[in-house]
Specification:
The chain is mainly alpha-helical. The chain contains 18 helices and no strands. α5 runs antiparallel to α6, α6 crosses α17 and α17 packs antiparallel against α18.
Length: 429
């Protein structure tokens, strides 16, 4: 992977990002994909609920692809670095378009619905690794955090707009036409990737296989600093998503306000960390931001008023920006030819832990109360962060901080070489 030869002291600007030719089509393609998934998730959950009257099946139909991503990470993620990025992203969007169109078929058996959802989750796990590995490849060394923050901002805004649009479409049309519209957005994502991205060699040679996936997972997991970074990316974040999953149960009439404030906090945190902090300052803030992510929710046991609860949710969600710092640290710990696999494993593990934490939070709320469950999940998150701090100090590594030295980057799989790199890329002017 081409890299810059100097270490920047300031972050890449948003203007520089959008001057990078391949950043624009990747951004548009990803936005269309997120909009499509938002519309289709809401439409499918509505359709399943109308058919079965089951809240559990409705929830699984909406979040099933996220939970299924760990299957892809376990069995197929080696493809993330062994496929040409443009072809892989185009094929991924086409597969989603076809699957979403199938879900719109009348009288589709429920078993077939969940089979399609499972396949979509597997495809998403590989596609995510390809996408974020390509982002890391096309941006300057100091540009990944800023670039990923732009994607996070777009993700949040697209989801808010998508859910609002989806609700209007379901009121005006019906779930199946909305699913077909989502399939059209997936086709737009495929077309944008096919036309806008340039052909690139895979980052790693060799054929994608189950064995290669397991070996690479084992290699990534064998490094203690990487292992602690993954745990820091997955667990504290996931437990706090469990807190958010109880907004409806905590205050049904004001849940929308709490979700909106949480989205606002994420937006503020991503802009602040991704644009205004230098790499040196970012390196010191990963664990403090993780503690900030959890601490405000510990006060929910006191049943705060809506204005205070909204302020707490906003403040807490700025802490989600810790993941930008941790991903930057993960890339410093990972050989370039494994960047897609490493980021795909992060994404799949994060989504799986979020779904698991939401299930745990719901169970605790059922046994106690939503306020007690929110405080418990937040306390667990802060406790895990504290444990990671101690483990990092004892072992010389951690879940986000100082860049790794080359000696700690980890080995290369036997029989595997890095794909030929294109000419060194110049930083955008």
């Amino acid at each position: 992977m081409p890299t810059t030869s100097t270490t920047a002291t300031t972050s890449t600007t948003y203007r520089e990002l959008f001057r990078t030719p391949e950043f624009r089509p990747l951004f548009v393609s990803t936005g269309a994909q997120i909009a499509a998934q938002t519309l289709s998730g809401l439409a499918l959950a509505t359709l399943v609920y109308r058919t079965t009257a089951s809240p559990l099946l409705s929830s699984l139909s909406m979040f099933g692809p996220s939970l299924a991503q760990m299957l892809g990470a376990t069995f197929f993620l080696s493809a993330a670095d062994r496929l040409p990025p443009r072809a892989a992203l185009t094929a991924s969007s086409l597969a989603f378009a076809a699957g979403t169109a199938v879900l719109a078929l009348p009288s589709l058996p429920l078993g077939a619905v969940f089979a399609v959802i499972l396949l979509q989750g597997v495809v998403a796990s590989v596609g995510g690794g390809v996408r974020w590995g390509l982002l890391n490849e096309i941006l300057p060394r100091d540009g990944y955090v800023t670039g990923r923050s732009v994607f996070n901002i777009m993700n949040g805004l697209t989801q808010v707009t998508g859910f609002a649009t989806g609700a209007a479409l379901l009121a005006l049309l019906a779930p199946r036409p909305t699913l077909l519209l989502a399939a059209g957005l997936h086709l737009l994502a495929a077309l944008t990737a096919a036309v806008g991205l340039t052909p690139r060699h895979p980052r790693s040679t060799g054929r994608p296989s189950l064995r290669a996936t397991w070996r690479t997972n084992a290699l990534l997991w064998s490094s203690r600093p990487r292992r602690l970074t993954y745990l820091g990316l997955w667990i504290p974040n996931g437990l706090v998503v469990g807190c958010e999953s109880l907004f409806v149960a905590h205050d049904p009439g004001s849940a929308g306000t709490l979700f909106a404030c949480a989205a606002l906090g994420m937006l503020i945190g991503d802009i602040w960390v991704g644009r205004f902090l230098t790499p040196a300052r970012r390196a010191r803030l990963a664990h403090p931001l993780l503690l900030l992510l959890a601490a405000p929710y510990t006060l929910f046991v006191l049943h705060p008023s809506l204005p205070l609860a909204a302020a707490l949710a906003t403040l807490a969600s700025t802490g989600f920006a810790a993941s930008l710092i941790q991903q930057e640290h993960l890339m410093s710990l990972t050989p370039p030819h494994l960047s897609g696999h490493a980021l795909g494993l992060h994404s799949a593990g994060m989504l799986t832990l979020q779904g698991t934490a939401a299930t745990l939070a719901g169970t605790l709320a059922q046994l106690t109360s939503p306020a007690t469950a929110i405080t418990t999940m937040a306390t667990l998150s802060a406790t895990v962060t504290g444990g990671l701090v101690v483990a990092g100090r004892c072992g010389g590594g951690g879940g986000g901080g100082k860049p790794a030295s080359p000696k700690r980057l980890g080995g290369r799989l036997r029989g595997e070489t890095t794909a030929p790199a294109p000419r060194p890329r110049q930083r955008p002017s």
